[in-house]
Specification:
199 residues, four-stranded antiparallel sheet, alpha+beta, single chain
């Protein structure tokens, strides 16, 4: 019982059929009803109406978990189609796709932060039920304990260590060894300073 779309959410409000700026991935058919219904609610409801509707029609915990990880790791390229929107068991969900531009590795002027599109901005608006769950998850995962982040940093250091020698001796590498080390240092610095920058 799943529908899954990639939709160009920054194009919301244009006078275009939704199928012209979206792709339906599962199932492969031309029924865009549930996506169009979501976009209509997103564009037309007042804040209080939206909060009620979103709490009833989104998987609140799953959506909040997606957005907390998305924002903590600085995924900056989801203004348009770089995430999935889906309907699962009658509730909307968000799923990652093509998030290689995470860990803040994007130009600072790439897109605005906070989800980068009108849908995620509404989901994270102050006072929304999803924002409340988002804040709770951010506290649990990152702000009130560093155990999860410490494990992530340890794993990143391990992975970079595993390929260090191969990068150093590979004559066919497409980047220099110094560039590899610079990326490693950037990623580890990002992880070690991220909490204080967004707290």
């Amino acid at each position: 019982d799943v529908e899954l779309f990639k939709s160009q959410f920054r194009a919301m409000g244009r006078n275009l059929p939704i199928q012209d700026i979206s792709e339906k991935k599962i199932p492969r058919d031309d029924d865009y009803t549930s996506l169009a219904y979501l976009l209509i609610q997103t564009m037309s409801l007042s804040d209080s109406e939206w909060n009620t509707w979103a709490s009833e029609n989104f998987d609140v915990e799953q959506t909040a978990r997606y957005l907390s990880i998305h924002n903590y790791f600085g995924v900056g390229d989801t203004a348009a189609k770089n995430f999935y929107i889906g309907l699962h068991d009658g509730r909307y969900i968000l799923l990652p796709w093509d998030n290689e531009a995470s860990l803040g590795v994007v130009r600072s002027d790439y897109y605005p932060v906070n989800g980068n599109n009108i849908l995620t901005e509404r989901l994270l608006a102050p006072g929304s039920p999803i924002r409340e769950e988002y804040d709770r998850i951010m506290d649990e995962y990152f702000f009130l304990s560093d155990s999860l982040l410490s494990r992530i940093v340890d794993k990143v250091e391990e992975l970079y260590g595993d390929i260090d020698t191969a990068i150093y001796y590979d004559s066919n590498r497409y980047w220099s060894y110094d560039a590899f080390r610079d990326e490693r240092d950037f990623v580890l610095d990002y992880l070690n300073t991220r909490t204080n920058k967004i707290r």
